[in-house]
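Shapes recur. Our protein:

. . .
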Amino acid sequence: MLKRLGVLTTGALLAVAMQFTPASNAAGSIHADPVLGIRLKHPEALHLAQDQYLSHNFGFTLMEGKQGGLDAESRMALRVSWMRQHGAGDLQSAAKDLVAQYPDIAINQKSIAIAGHPAIALYPVPGMSSENTYVYVAANNRLYEVIYGRGMLDTEGTALLDSLQFTAPTQSVEALNLVKADDVISTVPAGAIHDALPKGPQPEHDHAAGIQHDLDVIEPMAGPGCVDWPTWKAIQTPFANTANGNGWSNAGPSFYNEGYHVNCNVAGRLNDYHAIDFRLRTGDIAYSPGAGTVLATGWAGGGWSTLGRVVIIDLGNGYKSLAAHLSSINVSPGQAVTISTVIGYAGGSGNYSDGFFTPHLHQGIYLNASVDYGNRGVYSGQSVEPHNVRYYGNGGGYYGTFYRGQSVSW
């Protein structure tokens, strides 16, 4: 069996004996993928989300937690994908590129073998609620990416890798007739309302507590743990006055250390403790929470794949925002945005499987976070608790704080 990964004191390699034995006979489900040429045994408690669109990495994800429902923030246990633009000869370069992608993270790597095929294991790699273990495998003239999303390989991760088998594909990916992921990024959902701008004045300055401040002046805050959004500085609810058809939503169902929303200031992780999930309909408009510049948009990949379609915005002075699970995206990297910019439309995208999550808008704000531009995620930094959240409803006003299940309006 593959022993539990541990980092050597030199930090150069993973102290692990990469010797595999056949998978156990424990009860479980078998997933045989004729396109990927992969056979995998997994616990029945893990449900499978097959990619619904064709992207550069095409595969499936094993998820823990329940599918659907109001609290359906499921975690990724394992993702297996075929790197379609690479071949088996790119094994070393793929590992090198991954390490280069995170210059501020000390990633250890080790050459191993899986089912007799050469592979490279890397840990720790930034991810959602924990660091990930990445494994690149060269098999059948293809390059595969396997991500264990529960941190360092443990007994369960070992069993999943042990059960992997690589066979000759019996079906082409073209035969699936899938829509390319890039082609659906900017497709406006049916029924979306375009003219949903707030009525009345949209101030150039904030007027919280009767004080006017310049929009571009935000004092960064340092220190461990979470931080507060400056109390004098207003952000806005990211949804339109047509939300749910009546201009309101609910804060939640999952935030403040529930589900994915964990960590305040942990290197290599999505520090999402104060992120908010707004319960919205698919196609409800999503606005930028403030003025800034779009940093990244599109499908989240790798260890961030549960986020679905995302928009990451630089709000200035070290603050960044991330909107996730969008049904479509309406902005591009480098674009300047204001509070009146429609950045996208709410949805339930995640793991390339639309509808996997109950439709809602995930909105997080982070201080001094790093951006994974390739996979469209954010990590490290500090989770920011929003204060003085502005809305335009019944003449406009401010929410001082949010709590789970709170009704909010615009």
